[in-house]
């Protein structure tokens, strides 16, 4: 879809999942770029022996606020220089995504009548909601998978972003020396990454399982339902890494560095993982139990909603991604309560090759890396 005001320039805001199957002539692999909270993430893929592998990955921290960095192309260029010095990134063409605070992603139900395109029907619905405000937004949508009820009502995931924010972000990337292939949407990128994961790991491929992806972030987390290859739901929840840190600091009165060690550094210790009755691990789990119970409530609400949309069906698998997924207590507690296979999704583990030894520093479970991998996979066939 296009901005409602045709006199405005039209930057690409892409959400269509058809890009999963676009084959690039001469196969160019774009660099996925995400400017997260406190870190700039970059990922680039390549073909090795006919399979997609991760060529390069970097997660570069920055000290200023994200809003400050978004207004400073020189600072971004310096961070990119660090990333290129650490890893063999090739070229400067990127697929990126808008910061979450600059984009609104909503699910709408709209009426569809014979002879009317989905574009027309969605715009009519959005006009009712946003009136003249729509003229100053860049809008795109994708129809969500749903059972055919014959009612003429359909669901769509809609992305709306203020036009000036999109243009400013494009200017930032361009002035930092990058070429922008597209501005993508987080849920679409995550769906793409999950589908590529299935192409590598699922024995029944090309059939893919129905998946709930729990993407843990620093400020918020997201529950994303991917039904085979189709995005079906994406919703934010309040559970996040910062809430866990805050609760532990309040109870234990410890600095953040020690909290991080309690949550994550232990996870490298196989004895602690195996011994879930270990005193320290049990203490942390008990403190965090109210937060994890809140997460369970949100998951159960989502699964009940999905059952109502799919005639009682449920997901086949749950994937956890983001740094919180490295905390063994969360996986174990979820596994106890949910009768579904649960796995940690680490893009570095999945896409690393013997040629490129990328399995280090727990990069694959850093916040934003799964999303950035999905950005890097734009236009790449699931199997070469």
Secondary-structure topology with pairs:
Layout: E1 13-14, E2 31-35, E3 39-48, E4 51-61, H1 66-70, H2 73-86, E5 93-97, E6 104-111, H3 118-130, E7 137-143, E8 153-162, H4 163-175, E9 179-184, H5 186-201, E10 210-215, E11 221-227, E12 230-237, H6 241-252, H7 256-263, H8 270-274, H9 279-309, E13 317-321, H10 328-337, E14 341-344, H11 347-351, H12 369-376
Parallel strand pairs: 1-9, 2-5, 5-9, 10-13, 13-14
Antiparallel strand pairs: 2-3, 3-4, 6-8, 7-8, 10-11, 11-12
Helix pairs in contact: 2-4, 5-12, 6-9, 9-10
Structure description:
By secondary structure, the chain is an alpha/beta fold. It has a domain at 236-344: Nucleotidyltransferase, domain 5, CATH 3.30.420. The chain contains twelve helices and 14 strands. The chain has helices spanning 66-70, 73-86, 118-130, 163-175, 186-201, 241-252, 256-263, 270-274, 279-309, 328-337, 347-351, 369-376, and strands spanning 13-14, 31-35, 39-48, 51-61, 93-97, 104-111, 137-143, 153-162, 179-184, 210-215, 221-227, 230-237, 317-321, 341-344. Strands 1-9-5-2-3-4 form a six-stranded mixed sheet. Helix 5 packs across helix 12. The longest helix has 31 residues, at 279-309. The model is unreliable at 1-12, 14-25 and 267-277 (pLDDT under 50).
């Amino acid at each position: 879809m296009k901005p409602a005001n045709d006199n405005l320039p039209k930057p690409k805001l892409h959400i269509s999942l058809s890009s999963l199957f676009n084959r690039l002539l001469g196969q160019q692999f774009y660099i996925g770029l995400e400017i997260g909270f406190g870190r700039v993430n970059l990922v680039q893929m390549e073909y090795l022996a006919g399979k997609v592998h991760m060529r390069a990955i970097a997660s570069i921290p920055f000290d200023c606020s994200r809003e400050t960095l978004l207004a400073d192309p020189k600072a971004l260029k310096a961070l990119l220089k660090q990333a290129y010095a650490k890893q063999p990134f090739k070229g400067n063409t990127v697929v990126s995504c808008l910061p979450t605070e600059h984009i609104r992603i909503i699910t709408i139900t709209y009426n569809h009548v014979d002879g009317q395109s989905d574009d027309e029907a969605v715009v009519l619905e959005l006009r009712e909601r946003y009136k003249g405000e729509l003229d100053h937004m860049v809008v795109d949508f994708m129809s969500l998978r749903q059972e055919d009820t014959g009612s003429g009502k359909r669901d769509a995931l809609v992305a709306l972003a203020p036009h000036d924010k999109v243009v400013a972000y494009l200017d930032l990337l361009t002035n930092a020396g990058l070429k922008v292939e597209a501005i993508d949407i987080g849920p679409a990128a995550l769906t793409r990454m999950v589908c590529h994961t299935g192409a590598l790991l699922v024995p029944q491929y090309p059939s893919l399982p129905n998946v709930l992806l729990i993407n843990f972030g620093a400020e918020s987390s997201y529950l994303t339902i991917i039904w085979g290859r189709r995005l079906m739901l994406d919703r934010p929840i309040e559970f996040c890494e910062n809430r866990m840190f805050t609760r532990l600091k309040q109870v234990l009165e410890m600095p953040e560095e020690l909290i991080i060690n309690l949550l994550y550094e232990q996870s490298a210790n196989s004895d602690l993982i195996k011994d879930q009755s270990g005193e320290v691990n049990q203490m942390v789990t008990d403190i965090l139990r109210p937060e994890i119970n809140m997460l369970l409530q949100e998951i159960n609400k989502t699964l009940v909603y999905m059952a109502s949309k799919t005639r009682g069906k449920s997901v086949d698998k749950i994937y956890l991604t983001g740094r919180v997924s490295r905390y063994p207590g969360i996986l174990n507690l979820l596994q106890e309560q949910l009768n579904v296979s649960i796995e940690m999704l680490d893009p570095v583990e999945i896409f690393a090759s013997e040629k490129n030894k990328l399995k280090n520093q727990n990069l694959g479970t850093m916040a934003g890396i799964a999303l950035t991998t999905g950005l890097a996979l734009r236009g790449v066939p699931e199997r070469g």
